[in-house]
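To illustrate the input format used throughout this study, we show a single complete record. The first block contains the structure-token representation of the backbone; no residue identities are included at this stage. The design step must infer an amino acid for every position from geometry alone.
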């Protein structure tokens, strides 16, 4: 029998593992067609008394071409607020009615409002989420080319299947994050980005970046900044290729460069989601 380990997520990165989810995209027969990564984000929803929405963030190219997905949540231990590793709860549902695409079609970002799902599953599941306090605004002096980054996901559908945990990978910023790569709200990372990584959250180790600048700051601030979402990879003899993993795999040779949409690019998507969600809940009101 496989040995199942247990952890009490305390560190930022441990908690980030439980905010990242594998998304299985399904056809009408509930067969898996493609796999991507998503992560949970909590946003304030001041128009409603509930106060917050929980969004599953990923890429347009991951979510827009399907209508149904399966998400595998961690079960929560019944007697404590801890994950019951090795025990999962699959949530299989249509999501078309709660799917929101970035208003700019060139920006490969989308989200699903899963607030109702989380509410329905309640104490059955264990999860963490990011919030906007963790977002870089791209004025930070630590954001520079050549800085170490970490991203979390399911490259080529590889993950700890027994414990249902994603893979943490690292690299460096390959273009200057403050400069819009090719004129879009994006930058490059050198990180051996493989298919299945679409939708992976990308973090900058800000304490390491401060140290590299000759600073040592012990002020209780977060050790990582969320700086963007993986979208595509560069391949030989091509420009960029979107990164969902389909059942046929890939034959193109990646060259290790990944395209990341900046955290700031999520602002318009979040605003659209809040506005349209409110309008659905309160038709006729503005």
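Output of the design step:
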């Amino acid at each position: 029998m496989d040995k199942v380990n247990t952890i009490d997520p305390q560190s930022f990165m441990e908690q980030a593992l439980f905010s990242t989810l594998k998304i299985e995209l399904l056809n009408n027969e509930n067969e898996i067609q493609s796999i991507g990564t998503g992560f949970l984000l909590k946003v304030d929803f001041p128009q409603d008394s509930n106060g917050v929405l929980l969004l599953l963030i990923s890429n347009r190219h991951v979510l827009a071409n399907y209508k149904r997905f399966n998400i595998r949540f961690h079960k929560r231990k019944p007697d404590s607020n801890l994950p019951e590793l090795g025990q999962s709860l699959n949530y299989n549902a249509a999501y078309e009615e709660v799917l929101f695409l970035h208003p700019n079609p060139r920006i490969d970002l989308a989200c699903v409002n899963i607030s109702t799902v989380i509410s329905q599953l309640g104490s059955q599941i264990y999860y963490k989420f990011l919030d906007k306090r963790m977002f870089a605004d791209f004025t930070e002096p630590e954001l520079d080319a050549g800085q170490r980054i970490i991203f979390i996901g399911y490259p080529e559908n590889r993950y700890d299947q027994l414990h249902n945990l994603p893979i943490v990978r690292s690299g460096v910023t390959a273009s200057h994050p403050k400069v819009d790569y090719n004129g879009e709200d994006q930058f490059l990372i050198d990180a051996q980005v493989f298919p299945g990584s679409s939708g992976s959250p990308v973090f900058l180790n800000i304490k390491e970046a401060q140290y590299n600048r000759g600073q040592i700051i012990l002020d209780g601030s977060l050790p990582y900044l969320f700086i963007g979402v993986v979208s595509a990879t560069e391949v030989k003899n091509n420009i960029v290729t979107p990164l969902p993993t389909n059942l046929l795999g890939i034959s193109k040779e990646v060259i290790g460069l990944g395209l990341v949409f900046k955290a700031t690019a999520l602002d318009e998507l979040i605003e659209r989601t809040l506005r349209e969600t409110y309008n659905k809940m309160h038709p006729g009101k503005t």
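Structural context for interpreting the output: The first helix runs from residue 12 to 17. The chain has a mean pLDDT of 86.
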